[in-house]
Specification:
The chain has about 80 residues and is of the alpha+beta class. It has one domain (about 25-79). The chain is about 45% helix and about 20% strand. The protein has helices spanning about 5-15, 20, 55-60, 60-70, and strands at about 30-35, 40-45, 45-50. It has a three-stranded antiparallel sheet, covered by helices on one side. β2 and β3 form a beta hairpin. The longest helix is centred in the first third of the chain and has 15 residues, at about 5-15. The protein is elongated and about 55 Å long. The relative contact order is 0.16.
Length: about 80
């Protein structure tokens, strides 16, 4: 393997290990397969939004909570 690439792989591993200090998503578009339908979750201006009916009435849903959990420390804390 290329020695330059080996150094880049090591750096990438360090970035992953330090992800909450180094990585912050500014925007994101995710499709999540719900039990009944697929739903679109967007990160816009630091806020997760979902197209499901529950989100429309409550401002939070299982889809946004799942994405919050997966990306913990890499997106702004949701209220």
């Amino acid at each position: 393997m290329d020695t330059g690439l080996i150094g880049k792989l090591e750096k990438a591993k360090r970035y992953v290990a330090e992800k909450s200090q180094r990585i912050q998503f500014k925007s994101l578009h995710v499709s999540i397969a719900g039990d009944n339908n697929a739903h679109e979750v967007l990160l816009v201006d630091g806020v997760l939004k979902c197209d499901c009916d529950f989100y429309k009435t409550r401002g939070r849903c299982s889809h946004t909570i799942a994405i919050e959990t997966i990306l913990e420390g890499m997106i702004p804390q949701q209220s």
